[in-house]
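INPUT
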Amino acid sequence: MSIPTNLKYSKSHEWVKSEADGTVTVGITHHAQELLGDMVFIELPEVGKTLKQKEECAVAESVKAAADVYSPISGEVIAVNSPLVDEPGKINEDAYSAWLFKMKPGNTAEIDGLLDAAAYTALVESEDH
Amino acid sequence: MLKMTPLNQTHRDMNAKMVDFGGWDMPLHYGSQLDEHHKVRQDAGMFDVSHMLPVDIKGDNVRDFLRRLVANNVDKLTLPGKALYSCMLTPQGGIIDDLIIYFLSETWFRIVVNAGTADKDVAWMMKQRDALAPNLEITPRRDLAMVAVQGPNARAKVWQVIPGSQTATEELKLFQSAVVGSYFIARTGYTGEDGFEIILPASDAPAFWKALHAVGVAPAGLGARDTLRLEAGMNLYGQDMDETKNPLESGLAWTVDLKSERDFIGKQALLDTNVTQQLVGLVLIDRGVLRGHQQVVGEQGGVEYTGEITSGGFSPTMNQSIALARVPTQIASNGEVNVVVRDKKLRAKVVKYPFVRNGKVMV
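OUTPUT
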């Protein structure tokens, strides 16, 4: 599966989409779900919570393992994808539409500092070899 | 260099996700571990278990040797083809391995042991043989492959594939086996479903696997094997028990014969032991996933007790998390305990396992 070029990525395998209204949407990448396998449990952050960049903020568990999700940037959680909690398998079906939460960025410079698709592709390839 | 079973290339051809499992290159899943799990509960799936090792013991009075070697009583094996589950113990009562013994004749018994313990098991058996019955011949059979076909439709699918097998195996009860040509077919398994475990020449394994696939048996990997055995409440060696644990504190008292006069290695230690721990089942009440090594905290009569999860995970059949946990004997079934998951205490119900048998939830 190709890595979408309109998104930014963290080294810890979260994707970040900048929305037109200045907010960002966060999820975990296709590569991350592939490593984890069938997802069975998602714990989302609380709306209103202020997160620091790289702070543990959600949990994604598969049949195989539990993985912490780290906030790719600092900011406030303004929405969470609650239906995902009952259907964690949606992440396996399409990791880039099964978003976890939306944030109001605290510092937009952090978004610019994330990996672009080419850099993230290189990261994934280096982990595969 | 990872060890490979005779089906290694076959798994790769079927797009298996391969993993290092105790030094063996084994299939974890072929796409979705959950789908494979459900397929076994509802229809039929097959597992390559060729990493496990059949060990043949041949010669006069094999039975006498086994009376001493293992904790269960081989005198229960009266009918040729009958199988017995047992632990093999250290003199201190610790579990060297759990295994299945097949009685083929008075001069030929076959023992199937776990992959990770195979070398130490064979060394232990040979050491005991040298001391107790030097005339016996012990032969590890790496020339054989093993395929477990499991599920409500598993036996019927096998009958479609092995000519003449239906007549020979239709009447087999659980834990009985029969030989059909070059196939050794046993009505045993590690999933809580009906089915067969089949031992066959390594060179025949790929064709057999493909023939089963052609009649609709789904390939299933180690991932599904683990969730199925956990639901079935079956211990996994190295997780739920090892040489530091005895069978009485591992939910395996039913496999130990302490009543007969027979002496076996580890018997005296078990008679002398004061059993303070037990394995119980846990069903998570709160949301989350139980995992091995998480701490269990329970209370009985105002006193707090702690224990540890030995195997935990998500039960695809129950759609919630379950676990086996080693806890003090004071903690009673049907009570509630807390499990420490990350920084939270989650509530779990203490149950008698198995959790699932023959497609039905039992707790």
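end of record. The mean pLDDT of chain B is 97.
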